Amino acid sequence: MKVDAITTEPPKWGVKYEDIDVDENLPIKLKPVYTGICGTDRGIVSGSLPFAYAPHGRQKLILGHECLAKVIEAEDNDLGIKTGDYVVPIVRRPGKCVNCLIGRSDNCSDGDKHEAGITGLNGFMRSEFQDYPQNLVKVEDPDIASIAVLTEPLKNVKKAFEMFDTVSKKSVFTDANGAYDEKRAIIIGTGSEAFLYGLASRDYGFQTYMTNRHPETESKLRMIERPNITFYDYTKDTSVEKNGFDLAVDTSGDPATIFRFIRKMNNNGIVILFGTNGRAPASTFDGSDIDYIIERNITILGSVDGSRIHYERALQDLTRWNYQYGDLISNMITSRVKPDNTDIFLHKQPGEIKTVIGWS
Ligand code: NAP
Ligand code: ZN
């Protein structure tokens, strides 16, 4: 099949919009509606993510892992996916380890999985693709079709909070009312993942703060404040830090920043490392940092990706948030561009939260 696609040749620099032949013969035929762009796509295109590679025997990789698609033809299937349905394709495809075999390739034990648009499997930034029904998650509420492209980034957040639920059982983590209202969460960074973490943290009831090393624009501040999240620039005013934090989520990937915030954690605190930035400068920590972590029972965990269950939970959240917050969620999509506008892969747009490519 010939498709118009956004391609790159990892690990080389570069991105093209071109027609290319792909060899697929799978039971469900789909057309993307929107595909989202994130730092990973930009990292692959700039040649700075050495783990990206093209499908076996190919030089070119079709980009794209954040997608909302429409089914254009479907063979009968047990999951009831039919022509006309909106679906979100799952990015990771299982290998043969025990976690992959039970549907949790997000916890792959041997690294033998593939990721669409990233590692060894063509992605969704193309005029058409084909897939198996088990790799598709149906969007039940057609009202969220315009925001369901956020399902993929949000599923990472759902997985990370699942990790939080597991690890927080190590002691009584809730407040004296058995809830989280008196607990404090800090989200480091103000990008799209940070924003989704902020909303999820508010769903738990945490007093939620977002921070960056610079001030934020008025329009972003208004969006952050709507779900009662407080933004502060940690290089200027640190007064909100005096009561410490119980949960920290880092989306910056910057070691010095992460250690700065680890030193703000309260007893039994949980730090989730999520952001990755291979280009961040090196930083050091010393014996007193280690003492701080140990004496306070602080848990530091890494969390990557998510599985079908997290896509499903993400869709439920988007449905609810769409009702609860209205245009706040659609305003997260700060620009919609055409597939031939490949310049958007070269740098972040001013004021960008999420840029998406429209395929219709
Ligand atoms: P993004 O928009 O680039 O978010 C990164 C945020 O961190 C930006 O707001 C950035 O601010 C901020 N930041 C950078 N350095 C900082 C510092 N020293 N102090 C405070 N804030 C700082 O990217 P995203 O799409 O939201 O993704 C966030 C991160 O998660 C990326 O590193 C991405 O690769 C990673 N990721 C991880 C997973 C996973 O499964 N673990 C999945 C998807 C993405 P400025 O923009 O102002 O610099
Ligand atoms: Zn595996």
Walkthrough of the structure:
The protein has helices at residues 39-45, 98-101, 151-167, 192-204, 218-225, 255-262, 287-295, 308-325, 327-330; strands at residues 2-8, 16-21, 28-37, 61-62, 66-74, 86-89, 92-93, 114-116, 120-121, 129-131, 136-138, 184-188, 207-212, 229-233, 245-250, 265-273, 299-302, 333-337, 354-358. The protein is an alpha/beta fold and 360 residues long. The protein folds into two domains: 2-153 and 306-358, Quinone Oxidoreductase, Chain A, domain 1; 172-296, Rossmann fold (3-Layer(aba) Sandwich). The strands form four sheets. Strands 3, 5, 6, 10, 11, 18 and 19 form a seven-stranded mixed β-sheet that branches. It has a six-stranded parallel β-sheet with strand order 14-13-12-15-16-17, with helices on both faces. The protein is globular and about 60 Å long. The mean pLDDT is 96. The protein binds NADP nicotinamide-adenine-dinucleotide phosphate and zinc ion. Zinc ion is lined by residues 95, 97, 99-100, 105, 108-110, 112-113.
Notable traits:
6-stranded parallel sheet, binds NADP nicotinamide-adenine-dinucleotide phosphate, 360 residues, 7-stranded mixed sheet, Rossmann fold, Quinone Oxidoreductase, Chain A, domain 1, alpha/beta, binds zinc ion
Taken from the alpha-carbon principal axes, the silhouette is globular
Mean pLDDT: 96
Number of helices: 9
Order of helix and strand elements from N to C terminus:
EEEHEEEEHEEEEHEHEHEEHEHEHHEE
Helix content: 10-25%
Question: Could you name the CATH class of the largest domain?
Answer: Alpha Beta
Number of domains: 2
- Helix- and strand-based class? alpha/beta
The CATH architecture of the largest domain can be named as Alpha-Beta Complex
Radius of gyration: 21 Å
Distance between the termini: 19 Å
| % residues in beta strands | 25-35%
CATH topology of the largest domain: Quinone Oxidoreductase, Chain A, domain 1
